[in-house]
Amino acid sequence: MPPQHRPPAWRRALDFGRLWSFVPSLAVLAASGFLFINAPSQTLILQDEIMASHVRSMMADHLTDVLTSDQHTVKPWFNGKIDFSPPVSDLAKDGFPLVGGRVDYIGGRTVAALVYRRHGHVINLFVWPAASAGQTTTEHDGYNMVQWPEGGLTFWAISDVAAGDLADFESLFRSAAGP
Question: Quick one: CA dihedral 107, 108, 114, 120, positive or negative?
């Protein structure tokens, strides 16, 4: 049986050093994977922005830029301020009176914000052009939110009203806005 050839000590040390040189790379790869897996989704980021805008609108006394319950005043008010025409419906007969509207900034773009009330509670309805996946209903930090796509627009309604009231609002708004 031939004797085993053992590499010199300097060669063994070099091989050991090469092995350990991969450790920092593996650590960076593991950290990147962890950050990727735990990164908030675009939907969660958007929900945070919508909630922040809703709260800011009530704190800064900037609920509306145009204060009127007349949908025929609110809709044309948006002309030249945004690059689309949002549907505006007065749902006062159903318990959701139109308060007015304002221009806001969410998700990196200018959006329309329609403001409604329900028993003293504010409902902000944010509208912008975008293709969107299906409907989303969620509760976020004490606020109920509902999102739906329709006619090439995305709608996000947010309020501290009961989830059932917000669902009723969505249904009534969609019926009034029509196809």
Answer: positive
The residue with greater pLDDT, 25 or 129, is 129
Higher-scoring residue by pLDDT: 62, 57: 57
Question: What residues does each domain of the chain span?
Answer: 42-177
Q: Quickly tell me which residue has 């509207």 as its tokens.
A: 101
Compute CA distances 48 → 36, 44, 139, whole Å: 19, 6, 11
Confidence of residue 72 (pLDDT cuts 50, 70, 90): confident
Residue linked to tokens 């950290």:
31
**Residues 108, 46: Cα–Cα separation, whole Å:** 10
CA distances to 20, 61, 166 from 158, rounded to whole Å, are 53, 17, 8
Q: Which amino acid is at 42?
A: Q
Give the pLDDT band of residue 160 (cuts 50, 70, 90).
very high
Q: Is the pLDDT of residue 39 over 60?
A: no
**Rounded distance between C-alpha atoms, residue 177 and residue 98, angstroms:** 14
Domain 42-177 has CATH 3.30.200.100: yes
Q: Which amino acid is at 107?
A: G
